[in-house]
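#help-structures
NK: newbie question, is this the right format to request a structure? protein is DUF1266 domain-containing protein
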Amino acid sequence: MNQDCVDWLYGLSAPMVALNKKYGASYTSPSFFPDRTFVDMADDWGIDSREKLLNCVFDMVDDGHAPMLSRYYAMYSRFSESQWRDYCQAQDDYQKVLLTFVEQTFCVCGYGGIRSWDYARMGYLLRNGTTNKYISEEEALWIFSRIAERSQYFYSSWHHYFAGWSIGFQYWETLNNKEDLEALRCELTRASQTHTMKILINDEDSPCNRLAWYIDIDELEKPESLAEYDWS
């Protein structure tokens, strides 16, 4: 696999790099933090072993936070204006707030919605898992290549991908607020990650400034060491 392809795969975790740039995060190193020999993932993620890391990644790539809104983004992409309006009117007040959020953000993240919120975070875990020697770089790259296939299907550019992550972050911050709908509406309309997005767009090392979105990703053979996991 050529270096541009490797850099592209690691670029899927770029939003998390921008978020942690001041702590030494790298866009292209196999290790998310190149100057560290161990990254504690136990407190925030409950991960302290290979098994927990892989189970988390394989679960969260397709069944993380994104499915909570994915069907709405899909519906918005195919419904006529009147169909969408009729559907929204039939929902409860909480769902109406979420549907308005989807309608307002579709133009910047598209059909993919907030899937990249899960993809980028799992990339972050994979690279830290490589640092901690829970997984090998070969294993990490194969998993990244599977996330890449999903990413290129659901998004049409780095900017769409980054926007999906930012919107997902915004949604994640509101998950526990289901009672005060006015507060929820306000929280969903504020742009909480503008600084991180500026870094992603303006940083010359960011993948969006170095690599085309649609590149051929080498089809990697699944490592034997991951054969026990029915995931691809």
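mod (FA): yep, format's fine, and the tokens are attached above. The longest helix spans residues 137-154.
NK: thank you!
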